[in-house]
Amino acid sequence: MKWFRKYPLLLTLTVSGLLLSLAGLWKSQGGWQENAYDVRTAPFSALVFRDIHDKVSSTDIEPGDVAATEPPEGQELDPAAEEERKMTAGTGADGPDETETAAEKVYDFVQVDESYFDDAVFIGDSRTVGLFEYGGMEERATFYCKTSLTIWNVLEKPIVQLEGEKKPVSVEEALSRKQFGKVYLMVGINELGRGNITLFMEQYKKVMTRIRELQPDAILFVEGIMRVAGEKNAEDPIFNNTNINARNEQIALLADQKDVFYIDVNEAVCDEEGNLNAEYTFDQIHLKAAYYQVWKQFLMEHGVVRDA
Asked: Rounded to whole angstroms, how far apart are CA atoms 191 and 225?
C-alpha cells in the first residue's frame, strides 16, 4: 500500500472514477434524484458527480439567455411556446425592451397651418414686435414683446396690457393667469454688450425654468437669435454674428426634442455667407415689413404635434 502514499492523486482519480461508474449505474436504476445532495454536507466525490450531471447550472444562465429557453434534446416546443421563446430570447425575462417609452419619445418638426398659433404666445424684443405688427398672426397668437427687452428683464418688466387691467403687468404675471399650448422665446440681441456667454446662459436657464413652472404643459420653442447683415457684422465689434452664433450654440443645447425645441430662423433669412440677407433688412438688424412673412412661413414649417 506504499504506492498510495506515493501517488495520492492517482488514488483520488481511481476512486472518483469508480464512484462515477457506480452513480451512473444507480441513476439508471432510478436511484438518482435531482438536487439530492446538500452542498454543505455532501462528500466531494458526490459534488463532482453533481457538477458533471448538471453541466450548465441554472445560476450560470442570465435571464433571456437562449440556453435557458431551449427545449431538452429530442423534445419539441409547441408553436405558441416557440414564438414566445423567439420574442424573449436576448431581451431579458420581462420580454422585449421598449426602446422609446412615452416619457422618452422625441418629436420631429412638421408642417402646420396658421391655426397652430391659436394657443401660442410669443415673447421677445423688437424683432418679435415686428412679427406681431407685420407677420399677420396678431389675430391668432398672443404677443408679450417689447423693444429693448432682454433676458434680464423679460419676466419682470410690466409690458403686458391685459383686458380689464388699468396698468400693464409683467410677463411672469401674465403667464400665471393663462395657459398656452406653445411658448416661443427670442431674446439675446440686446444682451451682446452686457456680461458674457456664461452669465447670459445662466439667466436664460432661469427664465426657461420659470416659464416651464408657469406653463407646465406647453411646448417651449427657444429661438435662435436672428443674425445681423454682413456690413454690420464686419464693422461692429460687439453686435456681430460671431457673438450671436456663440450664444445660439448654447441655446440649442437646451432642447430635448420632447418638451423644449430649438428653432433657428436664420435658416430662412440669411444669405449664403450666413449673414442676414441685405435685401431683407432696412437697418442691418430688423426685417423689412414684407419679410416677416418669411419668418412666419419658417415657423409653420417647424411645428411640433405631440401625441394626445
From this structure: 11
